[in-house]
Write a structure and sequence with these properties.
Length: 1631
């Protein structure tokens, strides 16, 4: 009865449980305090890290131990689903059922806690091993740690030591099964518990790692210094790094002493640091660590008494920097890890392969044994005990430490990051090539592209300067281009290669200073834009991109009206160019452009000028005709303006009577009374000239006055006058003016600008802004404000701004700005024009631009070159270097009449210096009285000749023997003078031939550093001259002439015509050409010779060869479309002009040697002049004769052109030449009938051997097999046909020894053709370098066609047979399979919601992944999927995956900024990143692809991404055997989650279970039946809970595994699923 009641009660509970779960399903969503079990998962994993059978025992001794060690790494933690709130773990309970070996459990177990970050933030866990059951308990508890460590894991090393009965001497296969139950208790409201079970098997046989092992943890190491040392042997850079050696002792009883030794070639140790507390923990009170030197001598013994520093560390410094790190551990007390932090250095001489350091590690376990030594002489039993060390354990390993590639880094700075659209923005962009440490790569031939925001409408490059680079780089091109995004871009291409680092933290590296003038669009929005800096570096083969924010401000409120008022009463055509702010006047083929500027700034403020301003009228005239023109421009100046001129002298006054200089008064504006100015121009055809006048706005005499002023113009062209036209301005009075004056400074580089700001109003004005800017090569050093020195605030190189807080009425302020000339471009000569302007502006004043200061100055420049009388030396031979130094600059007589500097030469140490001889100028100071009666010191120079002995090296202070200069001479050279220095030295005895570089340096304060170098080869002491090579070096083929297809050409405006240039000879090496137009306004020509008529007139098109500068010209006459041709219509019988030409086909395909004819069709058919010229764009690929016959020469594609003599009309045909060689068996054009020369003395033989090159080295070895029965044929190159015998093609076959032979062959030129088994064999290396001719292979693989039949054969080169030819051999290698396999995986998915929050999921090589996104967070979210593509070599030969293609899934986005090596084309993604990487047999290469998807309600579902190998290749030209494995796909399912959390239901379920448990235990007396009943109840309830909570039956369950519970008296079997929810302590599972 009781049982029935209990059963009914149980049934009611189950029904109630299910019903309640359904009823409360919606209510539980509101509870957030507890974790969501459905979206929280406990993760755990074992890895076998060590396995070894060990025996360190010794006979007749109790030292050492014997047994088996198995060590497992165990990680556990919790994984929260996307969007789930993290909850910290309160307690982690782990029960591990450890492996048995046979019938033996582990005898001893130790646990090393590596991390408990997931549970409690790093505290050591507690553990207990139950040896009776083989169960290990580990407990980690958390009391107060609540940091979010959702991705962290607890990590343990579990060491199992088995007794000696488990030891086997020979490797024996074993299976180690390890299981664990992990229970996580959370610190949520109800202290929720989650459980997972792990069951893993490890098959072992051989040793895995060692009982004592070492692993390294190393900071990032970069190869910058290493690569620099390789490129420049003079570099001595040492790469330092920190490395932690973690010595893991997994069995303390392995030996009494443990020795650990590490070593790497050319990588040394400088110091080691050991934590004393860690040593004591592992070694105990009686243990110690000995730090040893390379010979095993103790440097320091570390024990409990050794003193440590305040941090508990003990540091050992190695003065001799050994390559070996050596430790001995004595009396280890417990298992554990000892960490030693080593400081290491990669020496400059190190040869690093595969960008990795290989450290050899050896571990020895040593036992000390006492033995008795019997004294045989005394014959008595009085033996001494002696101690002897025996190595009983050995373990060797290699540790690989990766060295990362140095990064290309350019740091970008803007002088102005706030741009406006109502004026020109002056912006200086400084690009610093960071080379201040090994993490940054040096640069070679960098290209810098500076892409502007889309709002930039115009860029002008003012200057580009290279700073701090010692003239390593030069700029080879600078241009304005359009970027891929359609924006304007400054492109700078530099040439040069850095070999040394600039380790100054202040400078950081070479800087490229780009000075730009930037204009923005008028119609634009205020926004933050970006300047994109994209740069490349040939050393790293990378392209880097960096964006810099700029603020774009729209300052245009209203559209600016027309500045100029034009009176349209002139005879010519007058118009106003609004965009460029200029008047354009066209008269008699002369175009005159007039613009108004304040300095270089257009008058752009509604045409308003202010009193006292000095502005320019700029006149530009262009002759667009083909005849010379005389032009006069007459300017009438109104009363509102005064004509001014600027005095411009040399800045100094010379006093010849006393031979000294004074400064002059210079650069003052002088007012003139002229009211009419005439500017005259003599213009050649197509020539343009410019000039300008300067006008000053007169004082208006009163305040708040405004007037109009009209400047009238008239033009005369060849005496013919035009009527006047005028330009109108508004001139106004102003409150504040600024005036700028220059002065020479105190040194020959220094200039001073004095700016005066005056307030002419009757009121104080606040917040007046002042700005000054000078030429780019001017660098401001000091600013004085009203006699007080400024702190250089707001100074940016050549510009300075200042805010005048208050400008008092009728008073002013003045500024003195001092600076120096720096980084002047010497290629423009020694004379410079320095410009400066200042501006005042603000809310309370009108913008007023000062006069433009223009001053002339000079720089001192030295030209330096060096030559040598020899470029090769033997021991004791002398060499003479000739150094020529010339002063090509200009000295300022007031400061100095000469340039002084130092000459230094560190002569290569492979040479013995002898002497130097040179002329120089001695400087003597003479005191004179100047014209004012003052004393003045004047330098007087006297030329002297000197010779010095330099055979003994004198080492100055601050130098060492390696860098001390042999030559160090102070020089002084007057302007225009030169010095010649001769340096003599002789070659020392060298054991190896070496090439040395001698570099001489000139440097001084007033000049830019110059260097010149000479390379010399020095032969080793026993060098002997080789026999002269009878084969002359091939001579370069230079261009001798160039011609155009026509000499004259007539076209109309907007009509195009093609000019064709023909270079002679056709096989010239350099066929590059430059096209130019004498008048680009009339005719434009592009780089391929296509001309376009732009305006009426005549222009000469010139083509110039890059090699030799050969030229050809064509006169092009352009007529207007509407112009009537003065030539009357042709009468019958007159010439009919050619109107066009075409070919019978636009493309043909040829094999090598094949010919096809092209037919030209001239239109009209009755044109009189049908002469045409045929030409080819690349004669190396195909040639064409005068009849249009095209012959294929080599594989490739080129264009054949035909051009008419009349009109230069062009037609083209694309020719594609395949690599198949056409061979004519019989050539009807040759005749063998003439046998007059066929005497015996003209007969020769050709012979050779065919062999199997088994080691594929290209060399025939005596033990390698012969290739027999191969057909060999002989081709007569001159007769273009096969050799025949008795009217049959002459053939032979190789015999059993692989030999073949042709007898009685005429002298001539031949090709030997071998027909071999191409299915099973390929040819070996052709004439491999270093293999003698009698042993190498002389054939290459060619695709040929004989009588139309295509085949593959081996062909020799053309053989000239003037005598018998032997050893014309062919080597073959067996074909091997080539098979690349591609696999695609999902490696990471990141979800970013619209509020900016992100969650990342990592996957381990999954081809299928699924993510769920809360429906509330779906809209606006972005999914970023990172794919890993792995290409593996499954074949037998090395190869490359030259191209990978990925099909872009629909709805996915590709972003180039996330994928450096990928590009998109027509919906496919391509990468060639593996094209240069060999994939060895059995190896694989990985690349990464990142795609994004913007989510909405309709975008969920499956994303299927497919990748394939597009192009694969190998050196053997073998096709991929199995293309089916070249394609792989990865699938991602994006699903919507409702986010329901059924926590109340779970709580009630547990409550009901507890009630049921209590009743059942009370009702049932037999414990075992109670337990089983409880289990069944729990399973039923839990199953209902799962169903109620929405779990899919069977979903995510592991496969059931049945086992029995050991030690329990029952036959009930439990599945793996059951054990997921229970754990019976004290039991083990049967295996």
């Amino acid at each position: 009865m009781r049982k029935k009641v209990c059963s009914i009660f149980l049934l009611v509970i189950l029904l109630l449980n299910s019903s309640l779960s359904i009823v409360i399903a919606e209510a539980v969503d509101a509870i957030k305090e507890n974790i969501n079990k459905d979206k929280t998962k406990v993760v755990a994993e074992f890895n076998l890290t060590k396995y070894e059978n060990f025996d360190t025992t010794t006979k007749d001794s109790d030292t050492g131990s014997k047994g088996v060690l198995a060590q497992f790494n165990f990680k556990t933690g919790v994984k929260f689903a996307e969007g789930e709130e993290y909850q910290p773990i309160k307690k982690t309970s782990i029960n591990v059922d450890l492996p048995w070996i046979g019938e033996y459990k582990p005898e001893r177990v130790e646990v090393i806690t590596k991390s408990t970050k997931a549970t409690n933030g790093g505290k050591t866990a507690k553990y207990e091993y139950h040896s009776s059951t083989g169960i290990l308990e580990i407990i980690a508890e958390n009391e107060d740690y609540a940091e979010n460590v959702a991705d962290a894991r607890d990590e343990y090393e579990i060491i199992c030591i088995y007794k000696s009965e488990c030891y086997v001497a020979e490797d024996e296969a074993r299976n180690l099964r390890i299981r664990a139950n992990v229970e996580e208790t959370f610190k949520d409201k109800d202290e929720t518990k989650l459980v997972t079970n792990v069951d893993q098997n490890f098959d072992v046989k051989e040793k895995v790692s060692g009982v004592v092992s070492v692993e390294h943890q190393t900071d990032d190491i970069y190869d910058g210094y290493i690569k620099a040392n390789e490129r420049n042997p003079e570099n001595k850079y040492e790469t330092t790094f920190k490395e932690t050696a973690k010595i893991m002792i997994s069995n303390k009883d392995i030996a009494q002493k443990i020795e650990v030794k590490e070593s790497s070639k050319d990588v040394v140790y400088t110091d080691s640091t050991i934590d004393k507390a860690q040593v004591q923990e592992v070694l105990g009170e009686n243990g110690s660590i000995d730090v040893l030197d390379a010979e095993g001598k103790t440097l320091i013994a570390i024990n409990k008494d050794t003193e440590a520093d305040e941090n508990g560390k003990i540091k050992v410094t190695y003065t001799d920097r050994p390559e070996i790190f050596f430790l001995r551990l004595n009396n280890v007390e417990k298992e554990g890890i000892i960490e030693v932090e080593n400081s290491r250095i990669i020496l400059p001489t190190a040869i690093i392969e595969n960008n990795a350091i290989i450290t050899d590690v050896s571990v020895n376990g040593i036992n000390t044994i006492k033995t008795k030594n019997v004294d045989t002489e005394k014959k008595e039993n009085s033996a001494k005990e002696i101690e002897e060390d025996f190595i009983k354990y050995e373990y060797n390993d290699k540790i690989t430490t990766e060295i990362k590639q140095a990064i290309s880094t350019i740091e970008t700075k803007l002088s102005n990051d706030s741009w406006v659209n109502n004026t020109t923005n002056d912006v200086v962009i400084t690009e610093t090539l960071k080379t201040d440490g090994p993490q940054n790569s040096l640069f070679k031939n960098p290209i810098i592209n500076i892409e502007m925001p889309a709002e930039v409408s115009k860029i002008e490059i003012q200057s580009i300067d290279i700073l701090y680079d010692n003239e390593i780089f030069k700029i080879v091109s600078k241009s304005i281009k359009t970027s891929e995004r359609g924006n304007k871009m400054v492109s700078i291409q530099m040439e040069g290669c850095q070999t040394v680092y600039n380790e100054s933290k202040t400078i950081g590296g070479t800087s490229v200073r780009v000075s730009l003038k930037i204009k923005l669009q008028k119609n634009m929005d205020n926004r933050i834009g970006s300047v994109r800096n994209k740069y490349s570096n040939e050393i790293t083969n990378t392209i880097e991109t960096k964006d810099i924010d700029v603020t774009l401000n729209n300052k245009i409120v209203d559209v600016i009206p027309t500045i100029y008022s034009i009176q349209r009463n002139s005879t010519g055509t007058v118009k106003y160019d609004q965009d460029n702010k200029k008047v354009v006047f066209n008269q008699n083929a002369v175009v005159t452009e007039i613009s108004e500027t304040l300095g270089d700034i257009p008058v752009d403020n509604n045409g308003i000028l202010y009193e006292r301003q000095i502005f320019q009228q700029r006149i530009k005239t262009t002759n667009t005709s083909n005849v010379k023109k005389t032009v006069s421009v007459i300017i009438n100046i109104p009363d509102e303006y005064t004509y001014v001129i600027k005095t411009d002298d040399d800045g100094t006054i010379y006093h010849p009577e006393k031979d000294y200089y004074d400064l002059s008064v210079r650069y003052e504006y002088v007012e003139k009374n002229d009211k009419q100015i005439t500017l005259d121009f003599e213009l050649e055809p197509g020539e343009t000239k410019t000039d300008f006048i300067e006008l000053k706005v007169n004082d208006l005499g009163a305040k708040n006055i405004q007037k109009t002023a009209n400047i009238s113009y008239m033009s005369k062209v060849d005496g013919a006058e035009s009527k006047e036209f005028s330009i109108q301005n508004i001139v106004k009075s102003t409150k504040v003016v600024v005036e700028l004056k220059p002065a020479i400074g105190n040194t020959r580089r220094e200039w001073v600008f004095a700016a005066t700001v005056m307030n002419f109003s009757d009121e104080d004005i606040e917040n007046v802004k002042f700005a000054f800017e000078a030429s780019d090569f001017f660098d401001i050093k000091n600013v004085m404000i009203n006699d007080e020195e400024n702190t250089l605030n707001n100074v940016s190189g050549n510009s300075w701004t200042y805010n005048i807080d208050k400008l008092s009425k009728n008073s002013g302020q003045y500024f003195v700005i001092t600076g120096e000339i720096e980084n002047f471009d010497e290629s423009n000569g020694c004379v410079y024009e320095l410009k400066g302007m200042s501006t005042v502006y603000g809310n309370n004043v009108e913008t007023y631009v000062s006069n433009e200061v223009r001053v002339k100055g000079y720089v001192e420049i030295i030209d330096l070159d060096m030559t040598a009388d020899k470029n090769e030396l033997k021991m004791d031979e002398e060499i003479t270097y000739t150094v020529n130094i010339k002063n090509v600059g200009k000295t300022w007589g007031y400061f100095a009449t000469y340039t002084d500097f130092n000459i230094k030469d560190v002569i290569p140490r492979e040479l013995q210096p002898i002497s130097i001889s040179y002329n120089n100028y001695d400087v003597n100071i003479e005191t004179i009285q100047d014209d004012n009666g003052s004393d003045r010191e004047i330098p007087r120079l006297t030329e002297v000749n000197k010779t010095e002995d330099i055979s003994t090296l004198i080492i100055p202070e601050g130098y060492d023997e390696e860098d001390a200069p042999n030559v160090d001479v102070q020089m002084a050279i007057p302007q225009g003078k030169a010095i010649t220095m001769k340096i003599k030295a002789k070659a020392k005895m060298l054991t190896e031939t070496k090439e040395v570089t001698n570099t001489i340096t000139a440097e001084g304060y007033w000049i830019r550093k110059k260097q010149a170098s000479v390379n010399t080869k020095i032969y080793k002491y026993d060098y002997e001259e080789p026999d002269p090579d009878p084969t002359p070096e091939p001579q370069p083929v230079n261009v001798t002439d160039v011609k155009l297809n026509v000499n004259t050409l007539k076209i109309k405006v907007n009509e195009k015509a093609q000019l064709t240039a023909i270079i002679e000879p056709q096989n010239a090496d350099n066929k590059n050409m430059i096209w130019s137009s004498s008048n680009s306004r009339i005719v434009d020509v592009n780089n391929s010779g296509m001309v376009t008529g732009l305006a009426e007139g005549t222009s000469t098109i010139t083509v110039t060869t890059e090699d030799g500068g050969k030229t050809a010209r064509c006169e092009v006459i352009v007529t207007e479309n509407s112009q009537v041709d003065p030539t009357p219509d042709p009468e019958p019988g007159d010439d009919i002009r050619v109107t066009g030409i075409k070919l019978d086909t636009n493309s043909i395909k040829l094999d090598v040697g094949e010919k096809k004819k092209l037919t030209a069709i001239i239109e009209p058919d009755n044109a009189k002049n049908k002469n045409i010229t045929w030409s080819t764009m690349d004669s190396d690929i195909a040639i064409v004769d005068n009849d249009g016959n095209v012959t294929g020469i080599a594989k490739g594609t080129t264009t054949i052109m035909v051009t008419t003599e009349d009109g230069g009309k062009v037609a083209t045909c694309e020719v594609t030449v395949n690599d198949t060689q056409v061979i004519n068996p019989d050539n009807p054009k040759t005749d063998d009938s003439d046998n007059s020369s066929n005497t015996e003395k003209n007969k020769i033989s050709i012979s050779g051997i065919a062999w199997i090159d088994e080691n594929e080295d290209g060399k025939r070895m005596t033990d390698e097999k012969a290739y027999s029965d191969m057909t060999v044929m002989l081709y007569d190159y001159k007769k273009d046909k096969f050799v025949r015998e008795n009217n049959e093609i002459l053939k032979t076959k190789t015999n059993a020894q692989g030999e073949y032979r042709f007898e009685n062959i005429e002298k001539g030129q031949y090709i030997v053709l071998f027909l071999y088994d191409t299915e099973n064999y390929s040819l070996t290396i052709y004439q491999k370098e270093g293999v003698i001719e009698t042993k190498n292979s002389d054939a290459v693989t060619k695709n040929i066609a004989i009588n139309g039949e295509k085949m593959t054969a081996g062909l020799t080169n053309i053989l000239t047979a003037n005598g018998d030819l032997e050893n014309i051999d062919i080597g073959l290698v067996e074909n091997k399979t080539f098979d690349l396999e591609l696999q695609k995986y999902v490696s990471q998915i990141t979800v970013q919601t619209k509020d900016g929050k992100t969650k990342t999921y990592d996957y381990d090589n999954k081809q299928f992944a699924k993510i769920e996104i809360n429906s509330k967070k779906l809209s606006g979210a972005t999914v970023i999927i990172k794919y890993k593509i792995v290409v593996a070599n499954k074949g037998e030969i090395t190869g490359k995956a030259a191209q990978i293609i990925d099909k872009l899934p629909e709805g996915m986005q590709f972003k180039s900024e996330l994928n450096n090596s990928w590009y998109e084309n027509n919906g496919n993604l391509y990468t060639n990143s593996l094209s240069k990487e060999e994939i060895n047999i059995g190896e694989s290469k990985e690349i990464e692809l990142v795609l994004t998807k913007n989510l909405s309600g309709s975008s969920v579902g499956t994303v299927l991404n497919v990748a394939t190998i597009g192009i694969s290749s190998n050196d053997k030209a073998v096709e991929d055997e199995n293309v089916t494995n070249n394609t792989s796909q990865a699938q991602v399912i994006i699903a919507i989650s409702t986010g329901l959390v059924k926590k109340i239901g779970l709580t009630i379920s547990i409550l009901i279970v507890l009630i049921g448990l209590a009743i059942l235990i009370w009702k049932n007396r037999k414990i075992l039946k109670s337990v089983m009943f409880i289990v069944i109840l729990f399973i039923c309830v839990f199953g209902n809970m799962q169903q109620a909570f929405g779990a899919t039956p069977g979903a995510n369950k592991p496969a059931s595994k049945i086992f029995k519970i050991r030690g329990v008296d029952t036959d009930v079997e439990y599945s793996h699923d059951d054990v997921n929810h229970i754990y019976i302590y004290g039991t083990t599972a049967e295996r």
